Amino acid sequence: SPPQALPHLNPLHILDEDYCGQAKCMLEKVGSWNFDIFLFDRLTNGNSLVFLTFHLLNQYGLIELFQLDMVKLRRFLVLVQEDYHNQNPYHNAVHAADVTQAMHCYLREPKLAQSLTSFDILLGLLAAATHDLDHPGVNQPFLIKTNHYLAALYRNTSVLENHHWRSAVGLLRETELFSHLPVEDSIERQLGSLILATDISRQNEYLSRFRTHLDENDLCLGHASHRHFVLQMALKCADICNPCRPWELSKQWSEKVTEEFFHQGDIEKKHKLEISPLCDSEANTIASVQIGFMTYVVEPLFAEWVRFSDTRLSQTMLGHLGLNKASWSALEPEASGSSEEGESEPGRATEEPSSRALSQGSQES
Ligand SMILES: [Zn+2]
User: What's the whole-model pTM score?
Assistant: First the structure.
């Protein structure tokens, strides 16, 4: 790609005064679940990931605590933002900024805030900001069937996630952001373990482990390994929290992710490859894609998260999830009908994630 001019090292100061003021004003509410990342991205002239991450690292006191060099840090964040493909409708730097903002909301939840160390918080924020680095805008099956070099490199296993992680490590080494710290190796390893947890195809593994811990009530956040596991779950939630946002934000994400799926489907059609599930624009709608995603991926995950952290934020997220699903169902009457009437897989018909979430929520409170 052609060399791009790096944004100025102190980017807030080159913005129009008024936009700059509004962006700064928004950052005062960076912990709000209604935070409009799309507006923030426009106000920062497409630099939401740089500004948001820098602001959070600073607000948590991590820059001072870890003696991070300001020039190295800004260069690292700019390189991270530039490594995202802004031509991807969904997997771009705004998604990364959105996940980082959600992660911040989760890090402030009482159970985490009371137990996480500064090192955990640093890792959590960095993992969120880098978790989809250099995403090509197509999924792993596509990379495998087109014999992409990344699929061979990572032996068809968590191909994208491994690439996001190794890209992040590359930028950390290039900028020498942590080269003054004795924990540099540990940062790289833990960053990998967090980013690899975002592989949706391994969700059941993480979910059953989480469920077992909650059933046994044996999560001990004094243990580093348990805190790390909770960070993995928090990052997984942050990554797929779009359906738990207010409708106006949630709807935009749904449109973007479906656009990216359909784009992949169009490429597959053009090259006479088998069209991947959810990627055929003639067989799917935004609503049908969303309802399936919510039912089989998002609801089961958040049902467990609310058991772990039954707070006002969790109830707010479940509330939006229910309303958003109802809104999509109203736009797609057939799709919502079939999930009730056992046309879908029989094993799944018995599972009613939303009602289970509600009953669990009320048991806890
Ligand atoms: Zn992601």
Answer: 0.88
